[in-house]
Write a structure and sequence with these properties.
This protein is α/β, with parallel strands linked by helices and 310 residues long. It is 25% helix and 29% strand.
């Protein structure tokens, strides 16, 4: 069984940043990239809001650079997915791909979260070409254009209001005849002059061509089918954090996000740390994920030093 000083699970901005800091601190990090190397960021195209890139940067290029930087400082980056963990023993025991057995003195969980989609083939077809699950990430590309937001909760309202500050028109596609959002968010949406709420509607198909999204086909509750012309289609129906594997050992909130202690990356299990979208239900940005990866590595460094001096 291989013994690892610092094991990092997840190859997105949080995981790679944790690897950079851990490697520079001589913590001998080993990082397994998981199911989606590069994380959710790789589902978009150009990232314009990551500091240091005035002209924007290709999402995959950004993640390739983070990976290369971590390797430059000595991080061991591998392919594989954690399939079992035992956080009740020391060192921690982790199984990769149902076969590789590892022991780790410190564990950083940066497994991310997956945006919920409708499951339409056409939605998958235009992902990254007009279909997005992050208005803050991609809204800038739709200035003075027409977009749609799917959802009726607070997140959907926030996304719609953000897009309304950029776009010419925003449709909100709501499957019921009421919002699930808080009263104040409802009032803000309903008072916005360029937001039109389409009640009792479900999306049948995302329409488009070789250039990307051109519209959406909707089905009303009364059976009416109609099309809307749009340039962008935004999903705001929630995220699912990749935390199920750790549920027996860690404290999670009601939506499955790993709870950390105060302003640290520490979990309820000493020596286990969480960073990025798996513990962040609010911001879900590459830059905040990277920052929390730094925090996790620094906290892991402090923990390991305390173990040596104990």
């Amino acid at each position: 069984m291989e013994k690892i000083k610092t094991l990092i699970l997840g190859g997105g901005p949080a995981g790679f940043t944790a690897a950079i800091y851990a490697a520079r601190a001589n913590l001998s990090p080993v990082l397994y990239e998981g199911l989606q190397p590069g994380g959710q960021l790789t589902t978009t195209t150009v990232v314009e809001n990551f500091p240091g890139f005035p002209e924007g940067v290709d999402a995959n290029t950004l993640m390739d650079n983070m990976r290369a930087q971590a390797r430059h400082f000595g991080a061991d980056i591998r392919q594989g997915v954690a399939t079992a963990v035992d956080l009740g023993v020391r060192p921690f025991r982790i199984t990769i791909d149902n076969e590789t057995q590892l022991e780790a003195d410190a564990l950083i969980i940066a497994t991310g979260a997956q945006a919920r989609y409708l499951g339409l083939p056409s939605e998958e077809k235009f992902k990254g070409s007009g279909v997005s699950a992050c208005a803050t990430c991609d809204g800038f590309f739709y200035r003075k254009r027409t977009v749609a937001v799917v959802g009726g909760g607070d997140t959907a309202c926030e996304e719609a209001l953000y897009l309304a500050s950029l776009a010419k028109k925003v449709y909100m596609i709501v499957r019921r005849d009421v919002f699930r959002a808080s009263r104040i968010m409802q009032e803000k949406v309903l008072s916005a002059p360029n937001i039109e709420v389409l009640w009792n509607c479900n999306t049948q198909e995302v329409l488009g061509d070789a250039m990307g999204v051109t519209g959406a086909r909707l089905l009303r509750k009364d059976g009416t089918v109609f099309d809307i012309a749009i340039d962008g289609f935004f999903l705001a129906i929630g995220h699912t954090p990749s935390s199920a594997l750790f549920k027996p050992w860690l404290k999670l909130d009601e939506n499955g996000y790993i709870l950390t202690e105060g302003k640290s990356a520490e979990t309820c299990v000493p020596g286990v740390f969480a960073a990025g979208d798996v513990q962040d239900p609010r911001y879900r940005q590459a830059v905040t994920a990277a920052a929390s990866g730094c925090m996790a590595a620094r906290d892991a460094e402090k923990y390991l030093l305390e173990q040596v001096n104990a």
